[in-house]
Automatic annotation (TrEMBL):
PROSITE patterns: ABC_TM1
One Pfam family recorded for the sequence: BPD_transp_1
Residues annotated as transmembrane: 24-44, 51-73, 79-96, 147-163, 183-204
UniProt-listed SUPFAM superfamilies: MetI-like
Protein's cellular compartments: Cell membrane; Membrane
Gene3D superfamilies: MetI-like
Keywords assigned by UniProt, alphabetized: Membrane, Transmembrane, Transmembrane helix, Transport
Protein name: ABC transporter permease
């Protein structure tokens, strides 16, 4: 059976796996983005706190993703739970680092001007600092998403959702007629989804970043 014939015969299952893959990555990215920005906001004013936040989230990336999922299985079981926890933790570093760098890079004169017209600290953060820090934060989100698209495939090891199941089924049946087709379909599906995510972020950047800041 050719690759295109395989896609035609299995398109329903592949679409279901692709939807689950996108859903898992998207939901984990929402959680990681909220947590990452909060950590950045809390720590960016302090040198040691910012370094601690970056170092702590960077340490997570030194743990192989397969090992991380394996360690979580005895604690939370199989399926969605280890997938969500692993993806969220792995997605934090680029967002935390870029949030801290972006917030520290805001021109102090602009913050002082906002303070001078009577803005509260929260108002300065929400209306001046975060909007100006948004471009690097969005870059961090893009990097995290691309990284998680690949890591999410490993979640199939713990019966997690997504296209990784297709890849693992192919690896488990190496030598069979459709083994290569399964691995190729899962891999190409992840690549296509990653490109679509990135295109969506480019559009989001054009909609949310003022032209003057982009330039």
């Amino acid at each position: 059976m050719s690759f295109w014939e395989y896609l035609g015969n299995r398109h329903q299952q592949l679409l279901t796996d692709a939807y689950q893959h996108v859903s898992a990555v998207f939901q984990c990215m929402v959680i990681a983005t909220v947590l990452g920005i909060l950590i950045g906001v809390v720590t960016y004013r302090s040198g040691w706190a910012g370094s601690l936040a970056i170092t702590s989230t960077a340490t997570v990336l030194t743990i192989p993703s397969l090992a991380a999922i394996g360690l979580l299985i005895p604690l939370v079981g199989l399926g969605v739970a280890p997938t969500v926890i692993t993806l969220t933790l792995y997605g934090l570093l680029p967002i935390v680092r870029n949030a801290i760098v972006g917030l520290r890079g805001v021109d102090p004169a602009l913050v002082d001007a906002a303070k001078g017209i009577g803005m509260s600290r929260l108002a300065r953060l929400c209306r001046v600092e975060l909007p100006l820090a948004w471009p690097p934060i969005l870059t961090g989100i893009r990097v995290s998403t691309q990284m998680l698209m690949g890591i999410a495939a490993i979640a199939a090891y713990a019966s997690g959702p997504g296209l990784g199941n297709e890849i693992f089924r192919g690896i488990a049946s190496l030598g069979s007629a459709n083994a290569l087709n399964q691995v190729l379909a899962g891999t190409l599906g992840i690549v296509v989804l990653a490109l679509l995510f990135d295109a969506a972020y480019v559009l989001l950047g054009r909609l949310t970043i003022p032209r003057g800041i982009r330039v």
